[in-house]
Amino acid sequence: VREVVKSEVDTGNEDHIHESVIGKVERALIGMVLEEERGNQVRAARRLGINRNTLHKKLKEYNLEN
To answer: What HEC string does the chain produce?
Structure first.
């Protein structure tokens, strides 16, 4: 997390650190859980504690769609 924050400050994005860090962590978490669930979005959404439609929206947002 410190490295991501430092990177954001170094690139001049210090006004959007929270949004950037959360986005990067969320993207990595979703990708990891989806991989562990072998692409099954229903199981991944359940593990993440979100609705499958929300997961689908986030997959589009983070370009994680297959």
So the answer is: CHHHHHHHHHCCCHHHHHHHHHHHHHHHHHHHHHHHCCCCHHHHHHHHCCCHHHHHHHHHHCCCCC
